[in-house]
Structures are given as C-alpha cells and as structure tokens.
Amino acid sequence: MALGRHESELTFPLDSDAVLFGNWSGPKAGLKWMQVKAGEMREANRRIASSAERLGFYHADEDWVAR
C-alpha cells in the first residue's frame, strides 16, 4: 500500500521508548509530540514486529523477541 493513500499509516521505531507514527488525519501544521501509555507503545512495537518479513532487532535479550 502506498503512503499517499488516505488510509495509510507509518510506524517507525526511534528507540525502545519512542516511535514515529503518522497518518493523514494528524495535525495539518506539522508534527505533534504525545506521551503515550505503555500499552500504546506495546501496540506500536507489535505492529512493527508482526509485519517484519525477515529480521528483528531488540536492545535486550528477551524471550518475547524470539516468539
């Protein structure tokens, strides 16, 4: 799916506590910084991990990474 479509979203990890999330319904004047709850951060990480086709990297040796 192309990023130019209205229903497209972008999720890009910046580090273990920050993610860049974009969609077409966001602020029209530019970027907006938001604090999110741990569950929302887990959801962003879940989206990234579930769509990985080949490799996944994480900063710590955790059991959930292998699953």
The N- and C-terminal alpha carbons lie at a distance of 26 Å
Give the helix level as a range of percent: 25-40%
Number of helices: 2
Radius of gyration, in Å, reads 14 Å
Strand content: 15-25%
> In the residues, how many domains can be counted?
1
The run of helices and strands is EEHH
Mean pLDDT over the residues: 77
Runs in which pLDDT lies below 50 for 5 or more consecutive residues are: none
Provide the spatial order of strands within the biggest beta sheet. 1-2
Protein structure class:
alpha+beta
> So what's the overall shape?
globular
Number of strands: 2
Largest sheet: 2 strands, antiparallel
Jot down its keywords:
2 helices; 67 residues; globular; alpha+beta
What does the model show?
The protein has two helices and two strands; from the N terminus they run E-E-H-H. The protein is an alpha+beta fold and 67 residues long. The protein has one domain (9-66). It has a two-stranded antiparallel ribbon. Strand 1 (9-15) and strand 2 form a beta hairpin.
Quick structural gist:
The chain is built from two helices and two strands; from the N terminus they run ββαα.
What's the arrangement of secondary structure elements?
Blueprint: E1 9-15, E2 18-23, H1 38-50, H2 63-66
Antiparallel strand pairs: 1-2
